[in-house]
Design goal:
The protein is α+β, with helices and mostly antiparallel strands. It has 19 helices and 13 strands. A hairpin with a 5-residue loop joins strand 9 and strand 10. The two termini are about 50 Å apart.
């Protein structure tokens, strides 16, 4: 744009519009041949330096981080840059080709025919003049404000989201006790299933590991959690299917996966399969009652009798009960069916004492089930078996968490490698990993976008000053001093800054609302025992 007078002079000596377009494209191509290779090399080496830093902050896994020098990446980036350059030069080339020699010689940035009207003396004030200059080229002003605002919006969003994370709530969602021990399958992708008595020794927790934990110096209190699937059923009679659970044409409840309908699992007798848990007192203390009896001491006493059960209601990622999918309520009489050790069918009528919120990470197999029921540990062993030992949760005294974590790590590595554990320390590490990931990646993107915006701003201001030299000369001719000219240019820059801040605040609010909805998912996705990097490597 600053060379438009030059193109006007070329027209006076017979240069056609097509030739001017060709000149502009060739000029852009020459600049690209210099800028693109420099940018590719600079980007590669900057990435090579930044990636190890980012990876280290995400889990101390620098040894697994690489920046591949794939030629296809460089070729693709170069082609994309060239296409962008040629598209961006299209409008200026057409404008330069259309302008007449006389108009080019008189050209001033943003100059258009102005409507006649009355002007107050206040329009001659420096600050008012600066504001008017912003309206000369509304397109340019909009682009500058948008490019500067993007960095501010992104940076504000990153800091707002990361500081909205509450570690206490995060830990309460994923890890209530200080430690949970179990078979490695319980924490892995295979999961604990507890469906086959013949193979249960391959997936259950050993008593020797529990005894080791109880003998640790900082041990305070703990409790076992048993779990058995498919061994126990519940008669369909007395079960009311809520509106939130789909049913097929015959009335069988289940869920659609695409066009395929998957009904609830049933046993040979046609009873719904139940996932039955046996909880010692320590595990009961972790329950969060939603409906029914809320006194945990009363719940413990009644669960020991074997005449009462607790039902776990499904919850959303935010911890709210899905009321339209609750299958049982306090006071419901349900009939459990099972086989004794001799293979004889048995029935046991129990009463739903309370409904708790499903605690996926602490009180389940880490697989969702439609009928998760809890009873006392001793009644459970009478119905199933004490071999279905799923996990053991325990707390340690203040100040012993790191020592205990190190002891368990050593024990599972040397003595019982088939066992594993989870701890609050691991989840705290995962929490800080998640926040650091947001800060590093979001901050880096904000920095890059901010640099681009600032360079665009500087380029636009300098271009404007060059194209307005005749205008500045006329202002000086009628009495404006260089100090006043400088003040006017500074005022234009300040107006850009003010408008950028206002636009960032207005546009940033809905963006934050959208990004805020991703927080529960991210917390659920990365709220595992490993680091973010480790979780991504599993994919």
């Amino acid at each position: 744009m600053k060379d438009i007078r030059y193109y006007g002079l070329l027209k006076t000596i017979g240069t056609t519009g097509r030739q001017i377009k060709r000149i502009i494209r060739r000029q852009a191509l020459r600049l690209s041949l210099i800028g693109i290779p420099v940018g590719l090399l600079a980007g590669f080496f900057v990435g090579k330096g930044l990636v190890p830093v980012i990876m280290k902050s995400l889990g101390d896994m620098v040894e697994y981080s690489t920046v591949p020098a794939n030629p296809l990446i460089f070729i693709g980036a170069a082609i994309f840059s060239l296409v962008t350059v040629f598209i961006s030069t299209g409008h200026p080339a057409r404008m330069a080709a259309r302008v007449s020699p006389i108009e080019a010689l008189r050209y001033t940035e943003g100059s258009k025919a102005r409507k006649k009207g009355k002007h107050s003396l206040s329009r001659g004030r420096i600050w008012r003049m600066a504001l008017s200059n912003l309206g000369r080229s509304k397109g340019k002003t909009t682009i500058i404000i948008a490019s500067l605002s993007l960095a501010i919006i992104l940076l504000n969003s990153v800091f707002t989201i990361t500081h909205s994370f509450d570690m206490d709530k995060y830990l309460q969602s994923f890890m209530k006790p200080d430690f949970i021990i179990g078979n490695a399958k319980y924490f892995g992708m295979d999961n604990y299933r507890g469906r086959n008595l013949e193979t249960i020794d391959e997936e259950n927790l050993t008593e020797s590991f529990i005894e080791y934990c109880q003998g640790l110096k900082g041990y305070e209190d703990g409790g076992r959690l048993y779990g058995a699937g498919s061994f126990v059923g519940v008669k369909q009679k007395g079960i009311t299917i809520p509106s939130g659970i789909e049913q097929d044409s015959s009335g069988m409840p289940g869920e659609y996966y695409g066009k395929e309908f998957i009904p609830f699992n049933t046993n040979e007798q046609g009873d719904f399969e139940v996932y039955l848990y046996g909880a010692e007192d320590f595990a009961v203390n972790e329950m969060q009652v939603w409906e029914g009896e809320s006194d945990l001491n009363v719940i413990k006493e009644k669960l020991r009798t074997g005449d009462y059960i607790v039902y776990a209601a499904p919850v959303t990622d935010k911890g709210a009960v899905r009321k339209d999918r609750v299958l049982n309520h306090p006071g419901d009489k349900v009939t459990l069916t099972y086989k004794d050790q001799n293979g004889e069918p048995k029935e046991k009528e129990v009463t739903v004492l309370s409904v708790i919120k499903e605690d996926y990470w602490n009180l389940t197999t880490r697989m969702s089930d439609y009928f998760p029921y809890y009873m006392g540990a001793e009644p459970f062993k009478e119905i199933a078996s004490d071999k279905f030992l799923m996990s053991y949760s325990f707390d340690v005294k203040d100040g012993y968490d790191r020592e205990t974590d190190a002891a368990l790590k050593g024990y599972t590595s040397s003595s019982e490698p088939l066992m594993d554990y989870s701890s609050k320390l691991q989840y705290e590490k995962s929490f800080y990993t998640l926040t650091n990931m947001f800060l590093l990646i979001g901050g880096a993107l904000a920095f890059v976008i901010g640099v681009i915006g600032i360079l665009n701003f500087i380029n636009s201001i300098l271009t404007g000053i060059i194209t307005r030299q005749r205008e500045f000369a006329m202002m000086e001719a009628i009495g404006m001093t260089k100090r006043q000219l400088t003040k006017m240019v500074i005022a234009e820059g300040l107006y850009y800054a003010i408008l950028t801040v206002v636009f960032s605040l207005v546009a940033g609010v809905p963006i934050l609302l959208v990004l805020g909805g991703l927080v529960p998912y991210l917390a659920f996705r990365f709220g595992r025992r490993g680091t973010v990097v480790e979780e991504l490597q599993k994919e």
